[in-house]
Design goal:
The protein is of the alpha+beta class. 21% of the residues lie in helices and 27% in strands.
C-alpha cells in the first residue's frame, strides 16, 4: 500500500498531498512511514478517504495517546477522542495557533477529517515555525531563545488554565529550533514588560504568517490532514457561507524543551497602580507555581 503512494509537495515551505494510501488499512508499519512523511513535510493531506469514526480513533492511537473530549460526536466510550466542530458564515479557528499550547504537554499531532466543506472558502493555512525562526536575524533569534511566554485557554473561556513555554523549542525528533508563540493562546512574554511584550509578540505573530513560510489548502470532503503542532501553526480563512464540519483526534505530546530563560520574570516594580492589572495573570501563575514548590516553571 505505502509503495503505491503518490506524494506531491504543495509548497516549498511545507505540506504534501498523498494519494494511493487507504488510511483505514494503515497499521503500525505503515504508521512509521506516515511519521517519516510528517518529519519531512510537517503537514500531510490525504484526499478521498472514507474513515468511519471508529477507524479515525484507531488510526490516531497508532501515533500515541489521544486527548479526550467531554462533548463528542458519539456517546460510545471508544469514540470519546473525537472533537467535532461545525461552523457556517466563517468565525472558526481564524487565528494562528498550535493546538492546545496552553497545556504543559501540548498536542503533538492533529489528525482531522473534513466531513463537509463549502464549495468556496474555508481554506486552511499552515506555517512552518522552524523556517520562520531560522529566517529571523541573528540578534532576534538570540533574544527569543532567552525568553519564555505565558499561554492560556482564555479563548476557550478558561483563562486560569495556563502554562509557560520556551519561546523557542527544540523539536524532539528533528532537532530543529522552532518559534513557539501564537496569536490565539500566547498572552505575554514573561521576562518583558507588557508594552515590550506586546511589541515583540505582535511582530512575531505577523512574521509567522509570511507567505514564504506557509501553505494554503482548499478542502474536499473526505480529505484527512495530519500536522505536527510542535513545528507548525494553522488558521482557517473565515470567508465561507456554507456549513463546514470537521472531526479531529489529537495525539498528545511532551513538554516543550528549550534554552533556560536568561532573565527573571518582569513584574511592574513600585507602588501598585491601575497598570499593575496587566501583570495580574503572570503574578497568579508564578504564585501558583511557588505554591507547588516549583518556583517559576518554564515548561
Amino acid at each position: 500500500m505505502i509503495e503505491q503512494a503518490q506524494v506531491k509537495r504543495l509548497a516549498s515551505a511545507l505540506g504534501a498531498e498523498i494519494r494511493g494510501v487507504d488510511l483505514a488499512a494503515v497499521g503500525p508499519e505503515e504508521a512509521e512511514q506516515v511519521r517519516a512523511w510528517i518529519r519531512d513535510f510537517k503537514v500531510l493531506l490525504f484526499p478521498d478517504q472514507s474513515l468511519s469514526a471508529a477507524e479515525h480513533v484507531t488510526l490516531g492511537r497508532l501515533f500515541g495517546e489521544l486527548e479526550g473530549h467531554p462533548h463528542l460526536v458519539d456517546s460510545h466510550q471508544d469514540l470519546q477522542q473525537i472533537l467535532e466542530l461545525r461552523a457556517s458564515r466563517g468565525g472558526v479557528a481564524d487565528e494562528w495557533h498550535s493546538d492546545l499550547s496552553f497545556l504543559p504537554e501540548p498536542a503533538e499531532i492533529s489528525i482531522m477529517k473534513m466531513v463537509k466543506c463549502p464549495d468556496v472558502g474555508g481554506d486552511t493555512l499552515w506555517a512552518n515555525l522552524a523556517l520562520a525562526f531560522a529566517s529571523l536575524s541573528e540578534p532576534m533569534r538570540d533574544l527569543c531563545e532567552g525568553l519564555t511566554a505565558l499561554h492560556n485557554a482564555e479563548p476557550h473561556g478558561r483563562p486560569e488554565v495556563m502554562t509557560v513555554h520556551p519561546m523557542v523549542r527544540t523539536h524532539p525528533e528533528t532537532g530543529e529550533k522552532v518559534l513557539f508563540v501564537n496569536e490565539h493562546f500566547t498572552r505575554r512574554i514573561v521576562e518583558l514588560s507588557l508594552a515590550e511584550s506586546e511589541m515583540l509578540l505582535g511582530y512575531l505573530k505577523t512574521w509567522v504568517g509570511d507567505s514564504r513560510f506557509t501553505v494554503r489548502y482548499h478542502w474536499t470532503a473526505g480529505t484527512v490532514a495530519f500536522w505536527d503542532n510542535r513545528c507548525t501553526q494553522h488558521m482557517v480563512l473565515s470567508d465561507f457561507e456554507e456549513e463546514r464540519v470537521i472531526q479531529r483526534v489529537t495525539v498528545m505530546g511532551d513538554k516543550p524543551e528549550g534554552a533556560e530563560p536568561r532573565w527573571s520574570p518582569y513584574l511592574r516594580p513600585g507602588v501598585r497602580s491601575d497598570t499593575s492589572r496587566h501583570d495580574r495573570l503572570l503574578r497568579k501563575y508564578l504564585r501558583e507555581q511557588a505554591g507547588e514548590g516549583g518556583g517559576q516553571a518554564s515548561s
